[in-house]
Amino acid sequence: MAKITTLKLQEMKEKGERISMTTAYDYPTAVLVEKAGIEIILVGDSLMMTVLGDDSTVACTMDQMLHHIKPVVKGAPSPHIVGDMPFGSYNVSKEQAIINATRLLQEGRCDSIKLEGGMEVADTVKAIVDAGIPVMGHIGLTPQTVSKLGGFKIQGKGDAAKKVLDDALALQAAGAFAIVLECIPEDLGKLITEKLTIPTIGIGGGRYTDGQVLVFHDMVGLFEKFVPKFVKQYLNLSPEIVKALEKFKEEVKCGEFPEAQHTFGGVSEEELKRLY
Ligand code: KIV
To answer: Which terminus of the chain has a lower count of CB atoms within 10 Å, N or C?
Structure first.
């Protein structure tokens, strides 16, 4: 697969070709996603919950993001790789946001960055784009501000729909190349997708967005704390892995593992006798 650029993603929207996107936080997952031919990898701050065990994404730092972006970039040369800007890394000033976004590209070597928020971050998005860095927006349910939103719940219902649409238009006007629409009513996802000229990527945004994103650990059944309604589990790996681990333990205890084929030779009988 040729490297996926923002231009290619725009072309896909214009041709009505759906865009697939998933998360990856390490080299082996990135290799799998590359093999599957998925167009976009998000190194998301969801890693705080899925692989680092926190209850939210809020505590994620720039150094943690860089630590995870680097191996993903090594494992997946073709997909477009988006690095997530962690909470607090773009909210202090435009200068701070540009410096941190630059770090993700320069040190992490990803292709673009993603940040959460609508109208309130539009000036920041413009400043980062003007600095030469492609920005993906993220509106609707924004996990970094989950305390302010009052929990992980659907956004943009009723009167609140207008705010989500205005957020989308503001991000597009600010130069975002795509926008994640998280956990909003399907009709609103469709309306925003039709109004925007840039691609929308839904996660709980209904069937009519230009693309879909799922968190890798959710879709393969590796995150057991909770499974949101919008997730489709294509695999249920956790019980399979537990079964394999239990079998390993059993075989170690009864001496069935390792077998001769898993061992090394290399000391002659004579040498052994001498050593004994
Ligand atoms: O961090 C993440 O994985 C995300 C997705 C939920 C879009 O932002």
So the answer is: C
CA of 233 to the centre of ligand 1 (A): 16
- Residue range 6-236 forms a domain whose CATH class is alpha beta
Please spell the DSSP secondary structure of the chain, one letter per residue.
Answer: -PPP-HHHHHHHHHHT--EEEEE--SHHHHHHHHHHT-SEEEE-TTHHHHTT--SSSTT--HHHHHHHHHHHHHH-SSSEEEEEPPTTSSSS-HHHHHHHHHHHHHTT--SEEE--BSGGGHHHHHHHHHTT--EEEEEES-GGGHHHHTSS-----GGGHHHHHHHHHHHHHHT-SEEEEES--HHHHHHHHHH-SS-EEEESS-S-SSEEEE-HHHHTT---S---TT---S--HHHHHHHHHHHHHHHHHHT-SS-GGG------HHHHHHH-
Note the pLDDT tens digit of each residue in 144-196. Answer: 999 899 888 999 999 999 999 999 999 999 999 999 999 999 999 999 999 99
Is 182 noted as a catalytic residue in this protein?
Answer: yes
Q: Where are the domains of the chain?
A: 6-236, 240-275
pTM for this entry = 0.96
Q: Quick one: which atom of ligand 1 is closest to the CA of 201?
A: 7
Tell me: the pLDDT tens digits for 3-28? 999 999 999 999 999 999 999 999 99
